[in-house]
Amino acid sequence: MAQEVIAGLSSRPKYCSPKYLYDQKGSELFEKICELPEYYPTRTEEAILRQAMPEIAELAGKDATLVELGSGASRKVRLLLESLSVRCYLGVDISRDFLVSSTRRLAADYPWLEVHAACADFTRGVALPEGISPKRLVTFFPGSSIGNFTPEAAERFLISLRRCLPTGSGLLVGVDLLKDHAILESAYNDADGITAEFNLNLLDRLRKELGFDIEREGFSHRAFFNERQSRIEMHLDSRDFQVLSLNTKSIRFRKGESIHTENSYKYSIPGFQRLAGRAGFSSRRVWFDDDGLFSIHYLISSSR
Ligand code: AVI
What we know:
Elements: H1 2-10, E1 14-15, H2 24-35, H3 40-60, E2 64-69, H4 76-83, E3 86-93, H5 96-109, E4 114-119, E5 137-141, H6 151-163, E6 170-176, H7 181-187, H8 194-210, E7 219-226, E8 231-238, E9 242-246, E10 249-253, E11 258-265, H9 269-278, E12 281-288, E13 294-301
Parallel strand pairs: 1-11, 2-3, 2-5, 3-4, 5-6
Antiparallel strand pairs: 6-13, 7-8, 8-11, 9-10, 12-13
The site of N,N-dimethyl-L-histidine has 10 residues, from strand 11.
């Protein structure tokens, strides 16, 4: 983490991988974001899932193994566990304590389910742990987390995922859709400032875990829609000129210079299907809400 963060802060423009937003506090703040009135993706995706469940169950078939990427609080997967015929569940998340407590709760609530947890950075690729060799595998990647990759990285990620899945495996993936910019921007600039807290928490983490002399008071949260790139960008803007130091390393900030902390790409349905197709996944079914806010795709991995 130290190496990656220093490399990001030493480059121009400065950036930090969004995966570092998710320590225990960051994961809790993200759960709060999901409840915000402005943050439409979570409730919209849940409503689509509920409606689509009979069809998803049919596509997934009997006795499936369900792998959830970025499982977080493992809330949405409960909808699947209650409607699909699932024998085995594997939650994968980078935030260890959060993962352990949420998969423990799942194991207690569904005693018939074989529950596994893997603390892993799935952005580096995915491999199934030993002992899991499913006949039918469905990977669940909700929340439009795929939008936090650049399209090129999303394609590479899907290719690496496909390579470790048996041919014909299902991928159920939530994808946020392009829409009115005002709706998008307010989802990342909520009135209660929870998204700002989530972003600024990264600085607390750099101070506590890496020993940076960095204070959140020196920065402010900024999020906007970049139309050309079709993405929301989240930044931490330096309020003034400042020099941060870590051991012998010093990092200078101009007033207004930012750390780019996250991209959240927004797709059209055909645009995402084309991307998935290039990665060797064919589209079986896509569901979306009446307002066209969010989509859920059921894709199948091919053999190539
Ligand atoms: C996890 N990910 C899909 C969220 C998003 O919308 O890009 C993270 C987030 N960042 C700010 N608000 C939510």
